[in-house]
Amino acid sequence: MSKKTAQKNRISVFWEHNPFWKVLDKSIDGEGYCYACGARFGKETPFHLEAAHIHPLRNGGTSSYANHHLLCKICHAESEALEGVDYWLWLCLKSHFYDLGSIVPFDTETVNGVEKAFYNESDLEFKFKEHPLPFARLMRYRDGRVPHYVSMWYDLQKDKERLLSSGEEGMDKYVENFFPKTKRDFAEHLCRAVMGELYPKYEEILQFGVAISEDVEKFYNDKYENI
User: Fold this and answer.
1) Beta strands in the chain (DSSP E)
2) More confident call, 220 vs 184
3) Please, are residues 51 and 114 in contact by the beta-carbon 8 Å criterion?
4) Which pTM does this prediction carry?
């Protein structure tokens, strides 16, 4: 077994043992599925899935299995521009609207002893009608048209400072009531706003992602020092 295959096997084993992961509704079958879109790959084509860093090495990410997901080439390319809270929002959104690698969900059934997949356009129509805002935001994430979470936070701080320095009466109270007090508060607010009605379903995994994003090295050292 090659080193590359062994690494991907270890990544699968790691994530299989995280209970919240099942929230994504993507079966992890060895190396068979992209964690984001669910694209299925047979055992004869294991290298079509790539080991993708969650927190980039260039920004202090680790090489542990905890800091990797298995993504197909398309999702890996999309995720390269995303980091931290942005990455986890994209991951949950893509998981919700994609099934087995297609924007149109599939149903599977066995025909003459062979499992086959069939398009289920009514399921996509239901998802789109129930959650049009998250779907639109997924498309914006995919096309790189969403401002990064960190830059949004710094812009918010500039607005806060500008308002506080305006000298207007009652502005300090306004800022206290309507501006998130910490970066962590802002992350939660952003996740709720982006996910809309989907937020309760993905709350646990998003909180996990925010925890990693806010203090990556400490999180890994506390949780996964033996991985």
Assistant:
1) 49-53, 68-72, 106-111, 114-119
2) 184
3) no
4) 0.84
